[in-house]
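Researcher: I need the complex structure. Ligand is zinc ion. Inputs:
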Amino acid sequence: MGVMIGLEVHCQLNTESKLFCGDSSDHRGKEPNECTCPICLGYPGSKPVINKKAIEHGMRIAMALSCRIADEMFFSRKTYFYPDMSKNYQITQYEIPLCSNGYLTVGELKVRIRRVHIEEDPARLQHVGGDITNAEYTLIDYNRSGIALAEIVTEPDFTTPKQARQFLEILLSILEHLGVYDSEKEATIRCDANISLDGGERVEVKNITGFENVEKALNFEIIRQNGMKRMEVVVQRETRHFDAEAGNTKSLRKKEYEEDYGYIFDPDLPTIRVTAGWLESIKKTQPELPDQRVLRFVKDYKIGDYDAHVLVYTDKNLADFYELCCRKYGKPEVVAKWTMNYLLKSLNWRRERINNSKVRIDTFVEFLRLIESGKITERFAKELIKEYVDTGESPAMLAEKGAQELSDSDLDVVVEKVLQENRKAADEFRSGKEDALKFLIGRALAATQKRADPNRLRDMLLKHLNASIAQ
Ligand SMILES: [Zn+2]
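Model: Output:
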């Protein structure tokens, strides 16, 4: 049987207002509990109204994942007692989800999508002085309460934690391209992962944020459950919490079954009928998906399949940036080379994404033009780009500053020092070994942090070497 992993992905939908009221879904920079009203605070007698946009976002996800969309759907109340849901039930879709029976391919693996449904997000609990298992006390912020969520549930088709992570990365890119998800908002994708070994009971790890953490939590569970098996302890069905700092999982509760939640039809909300016309209008306006975009990049920009994949799947904004640079500068291959190799490397180094970095299309194109015109060498450009990503300043200005710093007398000092430190190589050159010069140029270049032009260094080195022979 081996390892069986299934995922439940909760994605906050990018709608202006919450799922059942007019409060803003975007509470960045707001005070806790500022974006609330009687509906999302769950006052008795308050009447929810369905946000049509949320349903349409769900339909877009359904189409992208090749799911069958229900003709009729309704909302149900999932009853539970917990402070993050003040009315003691969550409005969700249970009996008939928005859609079902889809799939998403991850490399060779076809991952079946069991269902996608829409539900409201609970409030955010803030545990003070510890985590959920040992906090001193807990604060509640209802700003998040009632934000529209799509829950995407897979069949247990993954056999390794790495596959689960790859799936999430591809899914994220799809959600970004659909425009149903805003990556700029904090922690908007959360994941529950269930895992069972050799046909045993499944353990669910709840509320993991970050794809790397999903992989870590699952790897931990494989080790833990294997350890239990060796000691002949039976794995129980339970819900666990992943502690990202400690890198382990802790038991939260013995798992209840879905039926235990006592779902009932929500009488405050109408049945939604999905007409052919409505579906057609969504289909017509469905944005380009990442796979289609990769194909287009290869065809239109004549770049390699791998390059196109990196540009598209790293971050939708990076792909947008690439396209805008191509439009302004032309030469898509050159833009791709510098974007995916050097720009991306510098961004990763700073743990930044293109949209929250100081990089701009105008200045990046200016940088590419500096290289094209020969004003800076490629070698220098690879150093300059780091400074550019750090400061966001005009690359032409940065290059000038760099060049000014390296006057002839500066280079004289560098060359002199390199010759002194590498007497053996200098002697070898003098006795006719041409290769020694290459070595010395390399040393001098390194001493200028690759800013100097190698040809200029070569001339300087020859001048110094010849002078010393003449003596
Ligand atoms: Zn509200």
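Model: Summary of the prediction. The pocket of zinc ion is lined by residues 18, 21, 23, 36-37, 39-40, 146 (CB under 6 Å).
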